[in-house]
TrEMBL record:
Similarity comment: family membership: Belongs to the mannitol dehydrogenase family.
Lineage: Bacteria, Bacillati, Bacillota, Bacilli, Bacillales
Domain Mannitol dehydrogenase N-terminal per the UniProt entry, residue ranges: 1-195
Enzyme Commission number(s) of this protein: 1.1.1.17
Catalytic reaction equation(s): D-mannitol 1-phosphate + NAD(+) = beta-D-fructose 6-phosphate + NADH + H(+)
Pfam families to which the protein is assigned, alphabetical: Mannitol_dh, Mannitol_dh_C
Residues annotated as transmembrane: none
Top-level taxon of the source organism: Bacteria
Mannitol dehydrogenase C-terminal domain ranges (all copies): 202-353
Keywords assigned: NAD, Oxidoreductase
Protein name: Mannitol-1-phosphate 5-dehydrogenase
Length: 378
């Protein structure tokens, strides 16, 4: 079986690539990083170290292509693929869509064999977003052909993979835990057979539980950790003041999730506890700058901070004070190497942080979250 995976980065190599190899796929990684592509073609294998578990997986049957320089080869690989996956980041999905569309058009012109495209990104509806971008340049006939042959099932992926620093650029150290949930609704043809994928009929509770617990908690640790002078998530978790605020934030998102999806409170508490333990994993060093990257995206209306903060008023009927503090810290997150954080800082200076927040988070002038956030702004 053959897979094409866009994004040979941390989650691409450390999670999706590893599971695809175990399931018997030959994987072509498509990326723009020449160092990674050359190393993949040179070695045809790489190591995934399970941090703290004393276990290393050797992932084989892999190769690399550059999405800009090897366009024809990417198209050929997509024509032959049994599965297509991505882990490039939500902002890159629109950029890979034109090449994907071109390749899928050539594929559907010649073959009636169906294929599924699974976006493994931290967002709600990642595959649907990619599908919309892929459909942008299609004629109505092409759209109906795609509807018949190309599935875009949405997914939730969970595994903490920090930024890497090894002599071999392909080696990747990951936490042992993982979860990959795929929605059956939009699958065309057979479900991809990958050990480790859990298929569900409705992804909504799974993606919301993951994004608004793992990623909201992580964002709290990163932004409040940075504010309190910490370099890593592990250091932030050791600071009692920060930890208490992370726990408070998770209680707020938990209250919404329990109410909305009727999760048993004790099950959700166990889920939260497991996540806090994962954040503290002493075998990992996860920089607050990685976890806090892209604050503009993370302050978006559907993302991990604003969506639960806004929903808290309706579902719980009181004020999300911890979420408000994290939102304020996200607005103040200043990493010179992070383009989005710099954009936010420039906007803060020009228009003020509340105006910046209103614009990024698409909030009305009178939204009650604004007053709560203001209390925590320096
Ligand atoms: N790292 C984690 O802990 C983790 C866990 C779950 C989900 N995710 C999600 O997975 C996605 C990737 O995150 P990551 O941590 O692996 O990031 P990363 O930066 O390590 O990897 C992204 C890869 O995409 C490549 N890329 C960029 N532009 C491209 C293009 N036009 N075509 C092909 N490849 C391109 C980059 O060169 C890089 O190798 C994100 O959506 C992230 O939210 C990450
Ligand atoms: O990848 P982002 O930027 O959306 O979020 C940063 C981290 O919270 C994230 O990568 C987690 O490590 C991951 O989602 C764990 O499953």
């Amino acid at each position: 079986m053959r897979a094409v995976h866009f994004g040979a980065g941390n989650i691409g190599r450390g999670f999706i690539g590893a599971l695809l190899d175990q399931a018997g796929y030959e994987t072509v990684f498509v990326d723009v990083n020449d160092q990674l592509i050359e190393a993949l073609n040179d070695k045809k294998a790489y190591n995934v170290i399970l941090a703290g578990a004393n276990e290393t997986l050797n992932v084989q049957n892999v190769s690399g292509l550059n999405s800009k320089q090897d366009e024809e080869k990417v198209i050929e690989a997509i024509k032959e693929a049994d599965l297509i996956t991505t882990a490039v980041g939500p902002h890159i999905l629109p950029m890979i869509a034109p090449l994907l569309a071109k390749a899928l058009k050539e594929r559907t012109d010649r073959s009636s064999s169906p294929v599924n495209v699974i976006a493994c990104e931290n967002m709600i509806g990642g595959s649907s977003l990619l599908e919309n971008h892929v459909y942008e340049g299609l004629t109505n006939d092409e759209k109906s052909q795609f509807k018949r042959l190309i599935g875009f099932p949405n997914a939730a992926v969970d595994r903490i993979v920090p930024d890497q620093n090894h002599e071999d650029p392909l080696t990747v150290e990951v936490e042992p835990f993982y979860e990959w949930v795929v929605e059956t609704t939009n699958i065309i043809g057979d479900q991809p057979e990958v050990n480790g994928i859990t298929y569900v009929d409705d992804l909504t509770p799974f993606i919301e539980r993951k994004l608004f617990t793992v990623n909201t908690g992580h964002a709290a640790a990163a932004y409040l950790g940075r504010k309190h002078g910490h370099q890593t998530i592990q250091e932030a978790m050791e600071d009692k003041v920060v930890l208490e605020k992370i726990q408070g934030t998770l209680e707020e998102t938990g209250a919404i999730l329990i109410e909305k999806y009727e999760f048993k409170p004790e099950d959700h508490q166990a889920y939260q506890a497991k996540i806090l333990e994962r954040f503290s994993n002493p075998s990992l060093t996860d920089e607050v700058t990685r976890v806090g990257r892209g604050p503009k995206r993370k302050l978006g209306p559907q993302d991990r901070l604003i969506r639960p903060a806004v929903e808290y008023f309706d579902w719980v009927g009181s004020e999300p004070v911890y979420l408000a503090e994290v939102i304020a810290a996200a607005l103040e997150f200043n990493d010179p190497n992070d383009e989005e954080s710099q954009e936010v800082q420039i906007s803060n200076e020009k228009y003020g942080p509340l105006e910046t927040l209103k614009k990024i988070a698409d909030l009305s002038d009178s939204h009650p979250i604004l007053n709560l956030v203001e209390k925590h702004l320096n």
